[in-house]
């Protein structure tokens, strides 16, 4: 008996070909240290129940550094064996992944060609259809009842919870303990940060105080004292300078009396000019003062 059906009315028997699962890549082998850590973790955890996770990691790392090279060679040998097996499995995975992609492309192409046909499809008579002579109404009633039961099961309040979403009590305790340890570690870091900030502020205040204390204090008496000291130094320097000049002039007079006489005249003229300028400036200053008073 031939049935006139829409392509989407009855699922195809080869539908499983379109829902193929992609091959899963093989797991990488663990390095020697990770093998040793996985082996010793439970033992170190039992010996140090109050230790934090990072402290346990430090202990295992120190144990790994302390063991002999012969013991390390055992884990290295296991790693090399699994590495060879992993390389073989990875090559097989690459070939199977390529075959999967090829089959997926072929299935997608065939499904697109079926969708483009559309319209009424005349399906060939299956061998099972000969023994199953349900009418169209009966088949529709069965599907209707099945769909309603499925909807009732989906929206029922007594749906069984997915076991993947259930967290065991020991897992909850472990997570709670980890959260507490992380909170304690965070509080320690915050306290350390506050302490460092306080020390920095205290040190900066101390340095500012030392700078202010070491800064020279200058008042009128100190200024007068410094001025007198500088005058004394300048006077001593001038006396030394005049002494050297007198010696040079005496030597010059002995060696070249004519040149010495000319130099002496020029010096006297310049000195007279300087003195005259000073006298004029003093007279002008006195005149300005008298004008201001008048």
UniProtKB/TrEMBL annotation:
One of its GO terms (biological process) is negative regulation of DNA-templated transcription. Residues 1-30 are annotated as: Disordered. The keyword Aminoacyl-tRNA synthetase does not apply. It holds the Pfam family HMG_box. InterPro entries: HMG_box_dom, HMG_box_dom_sf. Residues 26-94 form the HMG box domain. GO terms for molecular function: nuclear receptor binding; nucleosomal DNA binding. Residues 26-94 bind DNA. SMART domains: HMG (SM00398). Keywords: DNA-binding, Nucleus. Residues 1-18 have a biased composition (Polar residues). GO terms for cellular component: SWI/SNF complex. This is HMG box domain-containing protein. It comes from Angiostrongylus costaricensis (Nematode worm). The lineage of its organism: Eukaryota, Metazoa, Ecdysozoa, Nematoda, Chromadorea.
């Amino acid at each position: 008996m031939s049935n006139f059906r829409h392509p989407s009315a009855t699922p195809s028997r080869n539908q499983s070909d379109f829902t193929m699962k992609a091959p899963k890549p093989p797991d990488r082998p663990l390095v020697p240290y990770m093998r040793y850590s996985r082996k010793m973790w439970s033992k170190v955890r039992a010996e140090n129940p109050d230790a934090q996770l990072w402290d346990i990691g430090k202990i295992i790392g120190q144990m790994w550094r302390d063991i002999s090279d012969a013991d390390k060679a055992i884990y290295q040998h296991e790693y090399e064996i699994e590495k060879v097996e992993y390389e073989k499995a990875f090559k097989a995975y690459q070939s199977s992944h390529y075959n999967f992609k090829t089959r997926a492309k072929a299935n997608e192409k065939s499904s697109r060609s079926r969708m483009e046909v559309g319209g009424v499809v005349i399906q060939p008579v299956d061998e099972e259809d000969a023994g199953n002579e349900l009418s169209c109404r009966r088949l529709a009633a069965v599907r209707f009842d099945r769909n309603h039961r499925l909807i009732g099961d989906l929206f029922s309040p007594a749906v069984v919870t997915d076991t993947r979403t259930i967290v065991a009590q020991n897992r909850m305790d472990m997570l709670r303990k980890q959260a507490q340890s992380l909170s304690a570690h965070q509080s320690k870091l915050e306290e350390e940060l506050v302490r460092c900030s306080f020390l920095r502020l205290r040190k900066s205040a101390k340095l500012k105080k030392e700078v202010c204390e070491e800064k020279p204090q200058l008042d009128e008496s100190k200024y007068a004292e410094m001025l007198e000291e500088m005058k004394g130094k300048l006077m001593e320097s001038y006396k030394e300078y005049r002494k050297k000049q007198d010696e040079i002039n005496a030597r010059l007079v002995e060696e070249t009396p004519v040149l010495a006489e000319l130099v002496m005249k020029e010096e006297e003229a310049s000195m007279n000019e300087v003195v005259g300028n000073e006298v004029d400036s003093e007279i002008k200053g006195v005149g300005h003062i008298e004008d201001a008073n008048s």
